[in-house]
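Q: Got a minute? One more chain.
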Amino acid sequence: QLAESGGGLVQAGESLRLSCTASGRTFILYAMGWFRQAPGKERELIAAVDPSGRNTRYGDSVKGRFTVSRDNTKNTSFLRMNALKPEDTAVYYCAAKFRGEDVWTTWGQGTQVTVSS
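A: Always. Here it is, folded:
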């Protein structure tokens, strides 16, 4: 199971850090992803980190502003969001997939991020 935290209401230009904590003892075997879904839009993958934490990738809309990381000793992944824009407003989800596989199989409940102009 995954549980996100850290969402909220901020003004444009401010920062937030989301956390995603996993239960169980196999966290290190899973890649972690961060998705978001804005009203009326499809869910999009915005950031991902491999099981080791050494390799990351980002969607074009957040590249240079968001940073994904993980602490395998704490079963937690983080999404640091800087220079937030109103268009970043969405429900943010973390997800996990077993290393080497293509399907994100485990999802958190989502956390709302609202950026005011």
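A: DSSP finds no helices and eleven strands in the chain.
Q: Perfect, thanks.
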